[in-house]
Design brief:
mainly alpha; LeuE-type; single chain; globular; about 0% strand; Lysine exporter protein LysE/YggA
Length: about 200
């Protein structure tokens, strides 16, 4: 039993290293935590986890073959993901300070928006492909193993990405002026847009 679970340690280290480091999701969570608070950002956090769980499971059950066999699918995902990321970057960069924002002027990503973005997020695809190729057990039922590994991966990811939302919350409490908020949101928008360089590079 212990030998059969030996892959969990390396898988945990892999997921920790991939989800604690900066990327599109974590930059957006930092901006959301600062602008909307931790609890209003929670649907965004859960959407990332849910979307990655569905993506990783799908990769193990055959979606990854489609991605690897047809390079045009990869390019389409890169283009769609980049376009949506630039849109989100603009929304973040132009967001007014929380004290001046009306309900219609800004709101955090919903669960479904964050979940859907993972299917156009190249980092999530790379992470899922490597996770399933490197750590999916060969014995037993493939579907059950894939679901369990994907669930375990998101369990490791939860505190890592939540930390970025908490980091944003702490920063938000330090921003006292409209000008400070403008600079912060502009920087977060620029960092989000910069992720496109790595997506298309």
């Amino acid at each position: 039993m212990i030998e059969g679970l030996a892959f969990l340690g390396p898988a945990a280290l892999y997921m920790f290293s991939m989800t604690i480091t900066p990327g599109p999701n974590n930059v957006m969570l930092t901006a959301s935590g600062a602008n909307y608070g931790f609890w209003r950002t929670m649907p965004h956090i859960l959407g990332i986890l849910g979307g990655c769980f569905a993506l990783f499971s799908g990769i193990a059950l055959g979606l990854g073959l489609l991605f690897e066999r047809y390079p045009s699918v990869q390019m389409l995902l890169r283009i769609v993901g980049s376009a949506y990321l630039l849109y989100l970057a603009w929304k973040i960069a132009t967001a007014p300070p929380p004290t001046l924002r009306t309900e219609s002027e800004g709101r955090p990503l919903t669960f479904w928006q964050a979940a859907a973005f993972q299917f156009a997020n190249p980092k999530a695809w790379v992470m899922g492909l490597a996770l399933m190729a490197g750590f999916l057990p060969h014995g037993g039922d493939t579907m059950i193993n894939a679901l369990l590994l994907a669930a375990f991966a998101e369990l490791i990811a939860l505190p890592c990405i939540a930390l970025w939302a908490g980091f944003g919350l702490a920063i938000g409490r330090l921003l006292k002026s409209a000008r400070a908020w403008q600079v912060f949101n502009g920087l977060m928008g620029a960092m989000t847009a910069a992720c496109v360089i790595f997506i298309l590079g």
